[in-house]
Specification:
- The protein has eleven helices and 16 strands.
- The protein is of the alpha/beta class.
- The protein folds into three domains: about 45 residues; about 130 residues, Rossmann fold; about 140 residues, Rossmann fold (3-Layer(aba) Sandwich).
- Strand 15 and strand 16 form a beta hairpin.
- The radius of gyration is 24 Å and the shape is globular.
Amino acid sequence: MNKCQCDKPGHCDFYNKEMGSQPDNWGWCQGATPEQRERHKVDSIRKEKREMRIKGGGRYITIASMVEDCKKLLIPKLAKMNIKGVSGLPRSGTLPAAVCAMFLNVPLYNLSDGGCLTKAGGASDDGGRRMKYYKEKEEGTIVIIDDTLFSGEAMEFAFPALIREDVISAVLYVNPSKVESVDVYGMTLPHPYFLEWCFFNSKYIKNTYIDFDGILSPNVPYKIAIDDDKYIEYITNVEPYYDRLPTLFECKGIVTARLERYRDVTEAWLKKYNVNYGELIMFPTEREAERNASHIKESGRFKADTFIGSDAKIFVESESKEANIIRELSRKIVICPEEEKWA
């Protein structure tokens, strides 16, 4: 590239990254030589690959990260186009579609069987109270968005709509081998990766061990944990993280540092919230003193030993330090939502 193609700071298609004014990457690129620009592109690709290696070759993508990726990677590209509406490929595609429609301030469309597109109305024909002031475009493009594209099969649902001249396809995360299958994409993302919004009710869960406190429900506050009566009352009545309850498929099992003597109350809680699990493995009560003396170390080793001795392929752990212990000892995939990565 002989000269900078961007007339202002923003997303650069050449680098596939944000070239902003703080730091002034865009200003640098304006005055850079073609050789410097090529070197920067090579360095950017190497940096991305290095970060992927550090993350163990994949990502655990949270909803918060998905929203930020929409804002940084997909919306800047769509904003340069004449977009008159956005639709999400049911169901996961509706998440990035809603984000894009909101920030681009365009109508959100429903996509039904047969590829029929209809506006999602509300307080106005264009949807939402704010859209009462929207002036509909006579010309423009409707974008059908999905969260990921791996094989391309899901996008076939939208095929009848995509043959229209005013409809294009977009995806936030695309398999590098499928970039030619979509009109617009946010970033390439090699498989495997895990998505917060569907992981706990995906088929992955069948081969997954799950931590309890911090994953299925909030961690028990320390002042409550040291008082047995308060502890029992808490774990009996604590509300779950509803978005993490495996209810569609049965998870391999739940492995927790909770003591075995609390099995009855724990099983009653799991039944109350219809958690679908194979086995419940709890820390031996007779080793309570060891656990209390070095909770992170002993809990991490207990979970790692259980993981190693099983055919489970994934472990979901709430605490970063324990996750690292399980990773190092098991050499298997350990997801820690707090870290937004696995390795």
